[in-house]
From TrEMBL:
Domain HMA: residue ranges: 3-68
GO biological process: copper ion transport
Gene3D superfamilies associated with the record: 3.30.70.100
Presence of keyword Heme: no
This protein's name: Heavy-metal-associated domain-containing protein
Transmembrane portions of the chain: none
GO cellular component, one term: cytosol
GO molecular function, one term: metal ion binding
Length: 79
């Protein structure tokens, strides 16, 4: 089965911020894996083919964190 790889640059100032992003990704159906890094201010996410970029972006934005940039399968996307 095909999958998508998404990468987001997110402003996170503390462990609570990165934890909030991790919690919404853990609850999102179709997410196979994720790596949220406070040090690099990034979230790398692998999803099933059925999960689109905008769905993941909106879930991250609902945490109140600022998404600075995003990529879908290596291609820059609007945020």
């Amino acid at each position: 089965m095909a999958e998508h790889k998404y990468k987001f640059n997110i402003t996170m100032t503390c462990g609570g911020c990165s934890g909030a992003v991790e919690r919404v990704l853990k609850k999102l159906d179709g997410v196979k894996s994720y790596d949220v890094s406070l040090d690099t201010q990034t979230a790398d996410i692998v999803t099933e083919e059925s999960v689109d970029y905008s769905t993941v972006l909106e879930k991250i934005k609902k945490t109140g964190k600022k998404v600075n940039s995003g990529e879908a399968d290596g291609v820059a996307q609007a945020v």
